[in-house]
Amino acid sequence: MVRPRVGQGVEVHVPATTANVGPGFDCLGAALDLDNVFQMRCIEGGSERFDLIIEGSEGAHLRGGPDNLVYRSAQRVWKEAGEEPVALEARVRLAVPPARGLGSSATAIVAGLIGANALVGEPLSREKLLELAIDIEGHPDNVVPSLVGGLCMTAKAASHRWRVVRCEWSPLVQAVVAIPAIRLTTSEARRAMPKSIPVGDAVINLGSLTLLLQGLRTGNGDLITDGMHDRLHEPYRWGLIHGGKAVREAALAAGAWGCVISGAGPSLLSLCPKPAAENVSRAMVRAWHQAGVESRSEVLAIQQLGSRWEHLPDQKPAASE
């Protein structure tokens, strides 16, 4: 373990994620080929100084300071490692829009953990970072694939350990994400859900999840269609997404096997055969436009590598006047 120097920096690439994927509420998520890039550097100042510089129009409302998720996550690493905190600056190239259901907060958590760990010589294992990420986020479906990549099923085992299973995603299956110009916070989406659900709905979800995972593994569109149905969260959240149901119907009519809420929304995820992807993408944007909501759509690959980091050249402190 090393004490980080003023001017020392690392660059961390963290992928977006789509969580739940229909019936996999709070346990299933996939990393997408769309990265936020965090350049984190030690700077002069007190231990609670955290400067945030956002590159991109989406994050104008984000602020620095000790309550920022990146810095709070960095603090957890230093506490675990027995290291005194240092002042930090984070310059973020924001490609994953906040409050859209694509794991923006997870990218901040993972970046803070990986960056802080790298700055002190990586004393914490990837497994320990995974535990910290889940503890900070409160659920694993975004932070796990964001950290390790791929399609991940995460569950707390009887041993009380978090167990992560990397699931297969056939190259025949294409992900299309439609991102509206409206925001929906995770807390708002969770408030819409009931405190308990019928046993029958839980049973249906278990069956649907089994079908979905087999369909994703084999590229079987019929299984994906039957598997992309949820009774735990989607029935209570569709009403929060203006025009969402019309967009879903447009995606299905254009050739999608299924269309679900990405994470807590409002972005929507369609799964389709690759030849249909561009048609599905255009249909979703058109349907949202007809509902009075501007949007954009991305045809995205599954990102298999997870988060990664590299050293930045040291930056000399500015000379005092």
Report the portion of residues in β strands: 15-25%
The CATH architecture category of the largest domain equals 2-Layer Sandwich
Q: What is the end-to-end distance?
A: 34 Å
What helical percentage do the residues reach? 25-40%
Q: Please state the CA-atom Rg, rounded to the nearest Å.
A: 20 Å
What does this structure look like?
The chain is 34% helix and 25% strand. The chain is α+β, with helices and mostly antiparallel strands. It folds into 2 domains: 9-167 and 304-310, Ribosomal Protein S5, domain 2, CATH 3.30.230.10; 173-300, GHMP kinase, C-terminal domain (Alpha-Beta Plaits, 2-Layer Sandwich), CATH 3.30.70. Strands 1, 2, 3, 4, 5, 6 and 11 form a 7-stranded mixed beta sheet that branches. It has a 4-stranded antiparallel beta sheet with strand order 8-9-7-10. Helix 9 (244-253) packs antiparallel against helix 10 (277-290). The mean pLDDT is 93.
Gist?
The chain folds into 2 domains: 9-167 and 304-310, Ribosomal Protein S5, domain 2, CATH 3.30.230.10; 173-300, GHMP kinase, C-terminal domain (Alpha-Beta Plaits, 2-Layer Sandwich), CATH 3.30.70.890. The protein contains 10 helices and 11 strands.
Record keyword descriptors for this entry.
ATP-binding; four-stranded antiparallel beta sheet; 321 residues; amino-acid biosynthesis; Alpha-Beta Plaits; nucleotide-binding; alpha+beta; Homoserine_kinase; 10 helices; globular; Ribosomal Protein S5, domain 2
